[in-house]
Amino acid sequence: MARATVTRKTVTKQKESRFSIRASATQKKLIAQAARIKETTMSDFVLDQSLAAAQQVIADQAQFTLPKKQWDAFCAVLDAKPRSIPALRRLLTRPGVFDARR
Which residues does 28 contact at the CB level (< 8 Å), separation at least 6? Predict the structure, then answer.
């Protein structure tokens, strides 16, 4: 269970799990410098930046942008009348294995 920790600067919620990474001395120095500029700890800086990057990667899986010409073509395909696929129609109209037997 998470506990609240009171420090001079702020009240923070103690994290429940640990996450470790290996970095070269140069990488660590660069991250430390950035954390100082943001006036935060290295751990909070790395966590915040990692979460932002993770959210972007996940968003990229759900959102995309297209030039206008390609967007119009994409929308035309979505708006087009669906094709009739006889095998699919048969599959979707007969009772499934979980349907009640009559």
Answer: 42
